Amino acid sequence: MSAAAVIALAALGGIGAVARHLTVVAVAQRSGDDFPLGTLTVNLVGSLLLGLLLGAGVTGTTQILLAGGLLGSYTTFSAWMADSEGLARESHRRAAAVNIFLSLFAGFAALLVGRAVGGFLLGT
């Protein structure tokens, strides 16, 4: 990978992290719920966008930059797990389980939808 690509990867990672933070805060302010809808939102949107990239046949350095840099820092496994643990610790075990399973299965479904849409847009 070239030096320019590494710099672009770092820049896109920063952009993804800021976008994640702003999205999580905006969703949390609007939902007013203890359930971590912000983290769920970024993970589902990120899965959908990753599916679009895969379905559109994005490969090579472009895939590394967009999937690994931008979307890799936009989505967040660690925050998902921390939110789930926090719910369980606060005796919201059902909400913790819903968060884990909904994120997992809806995230996979979002990726599949994105892949199908990406493929459709390319006519493949």
From TrEMBL:
The keyword Transmembrane helix applies. Signal peptide: none annotated. It is a multi-pass membrane protein. Keywords: Cell membrane, Membrane, Transmembrane, Transmembrane helix. One of its GO terms (molecular function) is fluoride transmembrane transporter activity. Coiled coil: none annotated. This is Unannotated protein.
